[in-house]
């Protein structure tokens, strides 16, 4: 059996009870090298591969899953920029005969939203800025469409050590939309949600563009950004997107 398990953004407190149960009962845990520290406490055989080792990792999990119980671990939710889709694709393409079960986890957007206040409390879009598997033009088109629809925007994979261009281009697009609408969009930035080193900032797109160097030092690959819509407000020092109850019920 192959379980594909989302473990949340990192810390133990974000593991669901179901994830704990599965990780306690499997024979082997397969994961990215960087997540080893989160699953060592289960005292199981562990197989890891590093960055760009996804295909090798998933193939090994599928092969081993044919003869014993295996958990392939993904951070956050395995179906949100995780390993779950690759598991199904490879299983079909290479003909592995293994039952697959996905165990959902807390995704970075959800953990970050709670840290910031309630910015995802209305319609939102999630975009990854990684242009490794998606062309930059497609990413920017999706960002524009989200802004056009006045969706709140959750941004994953903002930068890596070498990849900054998609983020800089995205900032330009957001600023341009804001200027067109007369809005300085509120932006929440969460780094290491639920992990050691958790930090957040609530700011505006104009401030990010005016102090770019400083923000580029803060934002890294463990950061999620949430860009508010035109109704998002700061309430009690937190970032909140109202659903409209007060207007509807004249409170
Ligand atoms: C490849 S995606 C994986 C997303 C993951 N499957 C999920 O559901 O959260 C990696 C991106 O998720 C976000 N992320 C993951 N863990 C995070 C954390 N603890 N704090 C903030 N952002 C995080 C970052 O934007 C990071 O670049």
Automatic annotation (TrEMBL):
SUPFAM superfamilies: Tetrapyrrole methylase. Pathway: Cofactor biosynthesis; adenosylcobalamin biosynthesis. It is an enzyme of class 2 (transferase). It comes from the Archaea. InterPro entries: 4pyrrol_Mease (IPR000878), 4pyrrol_Methylase_sf (IPR035996), 4pyrrole_Mease_sub1 (IPR014777), 4pyrrole_Mease_sub2 (IPR014776), Cbl_synth_CobJ/CibH_dom (IPR006363), Precorrin_MeTrfase (IPR051810). Keywords: Cobalamin biosynthesis, Methyltransferase, S-adenosyl-L-methionine, Transferase. It holds the Pfam family TP_methylase. One of its GO terms (molecular function) is precorrin-3B C17-methyltransferase activity. This is Precorrin-3B C(17)-methyltransferase.
